[in-house]
Write a structure and sequence with these properties.
It comes from Morella rubra (Chinese bayberry). Keywords: Repeat. GO terms for molecular function: mRNA binding. Belongs to the PPR family. P subfamily. With 834 residues, the chain is mainly alpha-helical. Among the domains are: 5-110, no CATH class; 252-332, no CATH class. 66% of the residues lie in helices and 0% in strands. It has 46 helices and no strands. It is extended, with a radius of gyration of 40 Å.
Length: 834
């Protein structure tokens, strides 16, 4: 086929658009090659130089335009891991473009001379956009057995490959390149083009395992993910497959499930083989985020990707189901995997044993351990430790010993030091110090040496129970056995003395620490100061804090908070405020709870100016002052009848971007009503409703009380109608009637009785009884009789004794007919009247 004029025109049009030209050239060359196979005469008739000129021209155009497009996906698999970061240079140009879709991503992968990078590009790197068709994530629902269908893809005749384990060498973490890149990443906020260029240059020199070391060295996994994306976009660099798996492993320890899902998708885009372990990491991440449904849907995603399951992904799925309290589904999954030929291992059974223990099916767990050898899998010590942990929590020492004997006789597993350390820590953790001490002595009798960590756990358990004498004896016993106590052991005893009020002995323990060359730390001093404050010696604790520099220790936020609370309890408010100011100067930020605990007593004592000044200082220093702190101050001004200052604080809240809540408005509404400023209170109530705040029961009570007190029932009903439109309150009219009765406004109360009798409840009956008693006290028994009749008409039986009083009053007034009718109504309802 000749290169005719039409082809020439199409080539010119395509050359104007590089992404189209590359596809056109590849297609045209392919067609020429196919036709040449059927028409050899035409090919042989052309000069060889003409043929090579066209081929070289195509290669030149392809190379030229491919330098502008984004590098294509990586086609290497895990089996072909390289010794360094893959580089794309002139000699290995990758032509695996897909035309326009690759060209549209141009810009992030251009070479250094063409790329114009701004500051902070590391933090500005956006995660991959979800441009692939993907199922929308549903809310966390109960997972079904449809997710188990992935097991049908298992080929029992195919040899299963082992799980890839990347054991990171400690030397990689200490490598100068790794340290320098971590330093640059930490100071990314001060980046400029020069620093980013240095990082880009260092990145190309890193080996894959060194890149993995950088990812694992980040304290914040989000920073590691951003570095991963940033590096992936750099020119002349591509991630080794092992880096992708390391990134997934890092994310599996967090709740960043979306990030792990995108990395998994990126593996597919790069053409890298996705092993079941990659999907397992994503499942674990979803599980940590509490999204069990999404975690199990990863199996469906794995099935669609054509990845065969293995034992590793099955164990992950079972573990996810157990952690999600879906033991029955985990058991069905285990049975299903055995049907398709995947043999469970000890890890599978240990997950199920833990699931049984979590739901207190301990007999089933023990039975599963007994069945494991019959299924060709012998239990290990973890299998027994899991059940022992449940027995330790329940203080069932006999069962623990029986399980140890079974572990020795049946499974031939000899208890070692790890076994005893596990039991000691389990019993100590759950507060069973005597049982822990019993196993400690047994371990030492068998020749095992319990370290100071085990002793400290038991001592701490005894101290929490207030048994400091035994704890002190154990410390002396440690010295005799050559197990020198450390600062943790001493601090546990010191804190125990403080808990039982033996502060003097706690001080002696502190001196004993110095005597034995054990320097107390901040935790030790904080425990002592907390004990002093709890027993009314806050000023002494304050003096010890002032001596902290001489004692070579530094108070922390917990220390300041403990002493501040002690001073507040003892009424030393000025000293407490000074301590908070010092706390702020030292860089420790008090919580809103701490601030409120200072404001409340100041407001209670009427020291409003001091309270306001204190909160303003906290606000100016950047402390987290919240709406509760403002409301406390407003309430204090309202108690002092300084409404102008209270309303001014309400405006200050908006200026400080602290939006008042319903409690704030209720406080002001009640204060305005108390002063007789009903119009201002109404305006503030409407303002609260306009801002979308729902009135609380306290708001209703405050409004009802003030309006009923002034006798403005009509205005009250109008306002209540607007409040009820925002938030319903079923007993609102009951409150109005009862409040009107208390103020002697019975006629207004009687008019609202119809609103109450719409429902026949005990609350409504109580309201009617209050109105009847009010009528009787006012000497109007006939009105009380009418209320009782209205109750009978609504199938609501009034109180018999109260009606007898009404009947007697009616008889005294000569209204015997009404009195008889009232008694007859009771007889008709089946009540016996004496």
């Amino acid at each position: 086929m000749s290169y005719n004029f039409k082809s020439y025109i199409r080539g010119r049009k395509a050359s104007a658009k590089p992404h189209q030209f590359i596809g056109f050239s590849e297609f045209h060359t392919c067609v020429c090659g196919i036709e040449s196979a059927f028409s050899r005469q035409e090919v042989t008739s052309r000069p060889s130089s003409d043929f090579f000129e066209k081929v070289l021209a195509f290669i030149g155009f392809s190379a030229y335009y491919s330098s502008f497009s984004r590098r294509s996906s990586v086609t290497s698999s895990l089996s072909s891991t390289s010794t360094g970061g893959q580089r794309v240079g002139k000699d290995n140009i990758d032509y695996s473009h897909d035309g326009y879709s690759q060209f549209t991503q141009m810009g992030s992968g251009v070479s250094g001379s063409l790329q114009v990078s701004g500051f902070n590009t590391f933090d500005e790197v956006k995660e991959l956009e979800d441009d692939e068709d993907e199922e929308e994530e549903e809310e966390d629902k109960d997972c079904n057995d449809d997710d188990f269908m992935v097991l049908n893809a298992f080929d029992r005749n195919r040899e299963q490959r082992e799980v890839i384990r990347d054991e990171l060498d400690e030397d990689e973490l200490r490598h100068p390149l790794v340290k320098e890149i971590c330093r640059l990443v930490q100071h990314r906020s001060a980046w400029n083009p020069k620093l980013e260029g240095e990082l880009r240059h260092l990145l190309r020199s890193l080996k894959p395992r060194q890149v993995c070391a950088v990812l694992r060295s980040q304290e914040d996994e989000r920073v590691a993910l951003k570095f991963f994306y940033w590096a992936d976009r750099q020119w002349r660099y591509r991630h080794d497959p092992i880096v992708y798996y390391t990134m997934l492993e890092v994310l599996s320890k967090t709740k960043l499930c979306q990030g792990s899902r995108r990395v998994l998708r990126l593996l597919a885009r790069r053409g890298i083989e996705r092993r079941p372990e990659a999907f397992g990491y994503v499942m674990v991440s979803y599980s940590r985020a509490g999204k069990l449904r999404n975690a199990m849907q990863v199996l469906t995603l794995m099935q669609k990707a054509g990845v065969e399951p293995n034992l590793s992904i099955c164990n992950t799925a079972i573990n996810v189901l157990v952690r999600g309290n879906k033991l029955e589904k985990a058991l069905r999954f285990s049975a299903r995997m055995q049907l398709v030929g995947i043999t469970p291992n000890v890890l599978t059974y240990n997950c199920l044993i833990k699931g049984y223990c979590d739901v207190h099916r301990i007999e089933d767990a023990i039975e599963l351990i007994a069945e494991m050898p019959l299924k060709g899998c012998h239990p290990d010590k973890v299998s027994y430790y899991t059940v022992m942990g449940f027995f330790c929590k329940e203080k069932r020492v006999g069962e623990v010993r029986g399980l140890m004997e079974k572990m020795v006789k049946v499974s031939k597993l000899i208890p070692d030091q790890v076994t005893y350390n596990t039991l000691i820590h389990m019993f100590s953790k759950h507060g069973h110090a005597d049982e822990a001490l019993e196993f400690l002595k047994e371990a030492e009798e068998r020749g095992f040496r319990v370290d100071k960590v085990g002793y400290s756990a038991i001592i701490h358990s005894f101290c929490k129970a207030g048994r400091t004498d035994i704890a002190k004896e154990l410390v002396n016993e440690m010295f005799k056995k050559g197990c020198i106590p450390d600062v943790v052991t001493y601090t546990a005893v010191l804190n125990g003395f403080c808990l039982v009020g033996k502060v003097d002995q706690a001080k002696k323990m502190l001196q004993q620490m110095y005597k034995h060359d054990c320097k107390p730390n901040t935790v030790s001093f904080t425990a002592l100061l907390h004990g002093l404050c709890r027993h009314g010696k806050s000023l002494e604790a304050r003096e010890m804090m002032n001596m902290s520099e001489q004692e070579w220790w530094t108070p922390d936020a917990i220390t300041y908070s403990a002493v501040m609370h002690g001073l507040r309890r003892e009424g030393q408010l000025s000293e407490a405020c000074d301590l908070v100011r010092e706390m702020i100067r030292k860089g420790f930020v008090p919580t809103p709870v701490d601030i409120n605990l200072i404001l409340q007593p100041l407001c209670r004592e009427g020291k409003m100016e001091e309270a306001k000044k204190f909160m303003e200082e906290c606000l100016n220093k950047g402390c987290s002052v919240n709406v509760v702190n403002f409301t406390t101050l407003i309430h204090g001004f309202c108690l002092k009848d300084d409404l102008e200052a209270a309303l001014s604080l309400l405006e200050d809240m908006y200026l400080s971007n602290k939006h008042p809540d319903a409690v704030t408005y209720t406080t002001l509404i009640d204060a305005l009503g108390k002063k007789g400023k009903t119009e201002e209170a109404t305006e503030l109530t409407l303002k609260m409703l306009k801002k979308g705040l729902e009135p609380t029961p306290v708001t209703y009570r405050a409004v009802i009380h003030r309006y009923c007190q002034m006798g403005r029932v009509e205005d009250l009903l109008t306002l209540l109608e607007k409040m009820l439109a925002r938030h319903s309150c079923r007993t609102v009219y009951n409150q109005v009637i009862e409040k009107l009765c208390s103020f002697g406004k019975l006629e207004e109360a009687d008019k609202l009785l119809g609103n109450v009798l719409r429902t026949a409840s005990k609350i409504d009956a109580k309201t009617c009884h209050i109105l009847m008693e009010s009528y009787l006290n006012k000497g109007v028994p006939l009105s009380a009789y009418k209320v009782a009749c209205r109750m009978f008409n609504r199938n609501l039986i009034p109180d018999l004794k109260l009606c007898e009083k009404v009947s007697k009053q009616l008889m005294l007034e000569g209204k015997s007919e009404e009195a008889d009718k009232l008694i007859i109504r009771f007889v008709e309802c089946g009540h016996v009247v004496s």
